[in-house]
Structure formats: C-alpha cells, structure tokens
Specification:
The chain has three helices and no strands. It has about 70 residues and is mainly alpha-helical. The relative contact order is 0.14.
C-alpha cells in the first residue's frame, strides 16, 4: 500500500487493533509485544521503504510463529 501511495496508515491502525485483540485472547506474551512494537514502528514515515518492507515481512513471520505456538 505504501509503495502505491495509498492510505496505509489507516490499514496499519486496523491491523494494530486486531493484533492487540489477539494478544488479549491468547494471553499476551513476549512475541506479541515484539510484534506490536514492530507494527508501531511502521508509523515512522521517515523510515526508508526497504526498512519498512523488511519490517512488514518480519511482522508476518512473527505472527505466523505466534499462531503456530
């Protein structure tokens, strides 16, 4: 979304709400805190696109890890 100059911040806000809710359901653990930290960090608009993209993929991997635990 960001690379297409779409409203990615609104989508990010939705993801953060959903992930926070999952944390409540699954009795928050350290991995949820790391995931939320990574996603919150994406709000920094000054980070370059490569870092942004890398963080998105790291977040996806971390979420998969959490769901498979």
């Amino acid at each position: 979304m960001r690379e297409n100059e779409e409203d990615w911040l609104e989508q990010l806000n939705s993801v953060l709400v959903e992930i926070s809710g999952l944390g409540e359901i699954f009795n928050s653990n350290e991995k949820f805190l790391i995931l939320l930290s990574k996603l919150e960090g994406l709000r920094i608009t000054e980070i370059n696109f490569a870092t942004y993209r890398k963080t998105v993929f790291e977040s996806i991997s971390l979420l998969r890890e959490i769901l498979n635990d």
